[in-house]
Amino acid sequence: MSFTRNLGRFEDDMRTLREKRTEPGWSFCDYFMVQVCDWLRELSIRAVGCSSAVHLCVDQEELAFVFEMLQQFEDALVQYDELDALFTQYVLNFGAGDGANWLGSFCQPVRSWNGLLLRRPIDMEKRDLIQRGEASLLDLRSYLFSRQCTLLIFLQRPWEVTARALELLHNCVQELQLLEVSVESGALDCWVFLSSLEVLHRIEGCCDRSQLEANCSHTVGLWTYATEKLRSLGDLCGLVSENGPDSEDLNKTVDLLAGLGAERPETINSPQSPYKKLKEALSSVEAFEKHYLELSHAAMEMYRVIGRLRSARLVGKSLAEFYMWLLCFACFLSCACGFFDRVCRYLQTSALLASDTNLSDEERRHFCQEILTFARQTAEGKGQQKDARVALSMSSFTRLQELRFRPSSALVHVSAALQLELRLCSLMPVPVTLEQISASIHFTQEQPGSTAQKRAAQNPDGTVTFPAASPASASASALELCEILEHSPSDNALSSAGVACRNMHLLMRRHDSTASLDTPNTAPAVAMEDAAQMLRASDVTLLPGNNSIVFTAPSQKPGSYTLRQLCATLGCVQFILPHIYPVVQYEVYSQEPQLSIQPLTGHNTDSMPVLHSSTCSARILSSSAELLAESALSIQSSEKVTSISLPVTPPYHTLEFLLEVLCHIPSCPARMESERLTNGQISRRSRTRFNSGMTLIDQKVSVDCPWSIYSTLVSLTFHVPFTIKHSLLSAGRRKFIQVCLRNVSDTNFRLTNQTLTENQHTPSLELCSLNTRTHSLVFRQQCVFSVWELRWSGVSPVSVHCEFSAAFAPADAPDAALKLYRYDFTLERVSTLYSVRAEIRPAVGEQQCCTGSLCRLEVSLTRLSEASDSDEEYSETDGLRSSRLLYEVIDNSSNWAVCGKSSGVVSMPVAAMATHKVHMEVMPLFAGHLLVPSIRVFKYQPRLASPVIQPDTDSCLENDSLSLEDQAETASLRSRGSVQSLGSGESAQPRGPMPKRQAFGPGQVFSGTQGQQVLVLPAADHHLMEVNVT
Amino acid sequence: FIRFVVLINYPLYIRSVPTQGELKFHYTVHTSLDVVEEKISGVGKALADQRELYLGLLYPTEDYKVYGYVTNSKVKFVIVVDSSNTSLRDNEIRSMFRKLHNSFTDVMCNPFYNPGDPIQSKAFDSIVSTMMVQAC
């Protein structure tokens, strides 16, 4: 109770004192009577008459302290607010000329500007100064604010702190002006900067991050203010000037830093204290730039977050101004790496301005000239910095309009000409001469056609039209509308219908906010890709407005080419379009090499025997079959593969050459040389077949080319044009050799020089030509026969090896070279062993043979020579050597009926001219001139108990089967003859070891009566005459 | 100094006493629209119809004080005053806005005036001039 009473009394006293302050006789002594503290009294005495406000402050603050101690923060704050307002009023009054002379102490020059200090609850240092009456206005304000700040934070109202802080800072600046306090220029900026940051730090210290982010509308003012102040400090200290800080600027900086004093012990350990920041920022251009950018971006970001876009842009604008300033002296900074960023930004801005049609022509020219000058200067002055290129976005420089392919398909074969015409619109106000304009190309080895769908943007006439606006806005500008129908759930009736826009969120979005602010950051990201292939055009002058540039596109390799980037080079400035959209592609294909095989003469390849002379040179023919050149081939052969190096041939030309190929024809008597053109590497295999009398030899040739993965199989067919048959003809003992040459092809041939030679050159043998003509013509499918007589002296030859040869050439090619055709054959058992004669006589007492009457057939077998060969078997009977012969009467035309045995075995003595006669009865069945039945003679070998090993198994087997057949034949003949069958002795023979018969060789048996005819009269008493017309 | 601006979202009428520093002034006014919008949206929720047209001090800067006023049809009035000018109190500013609003209403009543066009009215001019003379 007593405390409250005391407090109340204290308050009242204070109030009375204050009320008295305007009275002329207001005394400090009276005022001090009520003071609690002695030190206050002392202070007051010293400040008699001139510093009443100070005392008042201190007194009122005492009250505030009391409240604070009592946890009455609200009340304490009110006391401070009252003090604050009171002081403000004094200052205003003073400014209005109402001289409260005690305020004079605040008008002394400001010597220290070390900012607010909010980290201590009570800044005793300042308080001390105030008590001693030495405080400056800034000190007083700082002190008061720090107290207010402390209380507000106790009261959990940090956001009020920022608002008050901003007010305080503005206020102080105004008051100092009003009081005409002399302040060193920049000092206030330092103070404001430090104070703003200090407040922000204090707030950050007592709030968590999410709170801060949610309330940046309260802090952003301080951020902006600090940014502005730092900027003006930079201007002041020459950190944003053309030449960098000079000595005067440095002096200024030193003075300003001196005014900061030493860093407070509270913040000395914190790396991010405002004091350190300011000191660092003022120390160098780079540090200043860094801090300035940091603050600007923070402020802009906050403005953007709270939706104050105009304010954000204002900060951005001053940032832009800053960049512009930097650029003004950028030319003088030669080697700084960061320099180029700034140059880029400046040049980009210049380009934007130069292309802006809203500006006056004069201004546009100016900015365009800026770029040109820069490009020229750096190009001249910096040969050593070739790689230092400034890359700018092309969008502000030119606009792509259209791209046209010639030919329009954008598909060419390798090395063919492809032109690209690029139409672009220059946005510059003056003509610009570019050193080079190039487009980088991305090459892929895709198969043509696979990218067809990607080239959808290309019109059929080979043009690609680029959208007028930037791709981003173009894509966003399309409305995606869809209709919406709502049915009522109960009866499914249409309740509402409408149209909705699906991408409204894109369309309704503000376009300017993020994109425009980010532009300066994205500009340096424009970089030229390294590309192996380029489209280039040099020394291009772009006139304002539409231009057309023609490029020649590379087409050396097959594949797909995609245009990626476009780059216009102007000195060391490059305008780059980082992506060409829509996709522009062209394709280069190479046709697969094909080997075409054609017959070189004639059209009928099936029947055409190809006989060619060959040369080892290749003829190069143009596509219109003109002969261009002839060059030699080099052919290298290994065991299996033949490699042929072809001469260089231009595309779409034909290479023609002949190769001589030796084709071995196995198991064939003829051998021929032939040829067909092949190519590349050859491997062969062959197969022979016989077809319609003509020998066909199939050859397969595989042609492998290094440029193709496929092997080409060439099938070659060789035709042997002739077939040859030989036969041995006998006339008694004389022997003739007949050669039948048959032309099986469809071509007529000339045939000359037909010769038959005996291979072994036996001196006793002689071949006599019986041919009269040496030249003959053999037509297609016809035969030519030639005959020689074989003569020998002394012992008859066992076998004769002969070779027939003839030269031939196509009949319709008179000058064609003659080819040799050869034929080898061997004759065995040439000499005649037996002569067989058959004679038919009428029955005894008859003049003529008559049908139905028996006639006599007399067969006489005569041995002509002594048997000398071993193929006859002899049997010894009674000391007489004889061989056994089987004879057989064969009447193939069934003219005769043989009565009795038609065959029999006779034993021929081994002696020359030994004759054996056999008589048989035959009956003619018809009248007329009938052929005498032929008599066949075989060697007869009775089967022995022990089988005889036959030297000639082939013939043995053949004869074996023949014998059975022959018996069957004779049996049937007999039954047909309707004559009683006497039975064949052999058929009656018991089965057991079969006797064998063996045929003689073709010339061994001479039939002397072959072809002889016998007149047979019809039987007179037949009432029915049978006439047989043969 | 004192400056008057009437604008919708673009200026309809601008009057400025010292003509130097025009650009900075324009920027300030432009930026102040952020705060105006913020305040309108904030106030509009609380009192839809019975709201105060006078928005008060929009924001202080070191050099200016910017005051704002919004009519019901969202036409904005902005007065920018030098910070050192302490003679103008809140009430005075408010009455100035009111006068301005009245005068603007007269302008709008002119059948020859197309809404949205820049204001070219002698009556409006004279009202603004008198206020400026009073303020300075």
From TrEMBL, chain B:
<keyword id="KW-0813">Transport</keyword>
<dbReference type="Pfam" id="PF04628">
    <property type="entry name" value="Sedlin_N"/>
</dbReference>
<dbReference type="GO" id="GO:0048471">
    <property type="term" value="C:perinuclear region of cytoplasm"/>
</dbReference>
<keyword id="KW-0931">ER-Golgi transport</keyword>
<dbReference type="InterPro" id="IPR044760">
    <property type="entry name" value="TRAPPC2L"/>
</dbReference>
<dbReference type="GO" id="GO:0006888">
    <property type="term" value="P:endoplasmic reticulum to Golgi vesicle-mediated transport"/>
</dbReference>
<protein>
    <recommendedName>
        <fullName>Trafficking protein particle complex subunit 2-like protein</fullName>
    </recommendedName>
</protein>
<dbReference type="InterPro" id="IPR011012">
    <property type="entry name" value="Longin-like_dom_sf"/>
</dbReference>
<comment type="similarity">
    <text>Belongs to the TRAPP small subunits family. Sedlin subfamily.</text>
</comment>
<dbReference type="InterPro" id="IPR006722">
    <property type="entry name" value="Sedlin"/>
</dbReference>
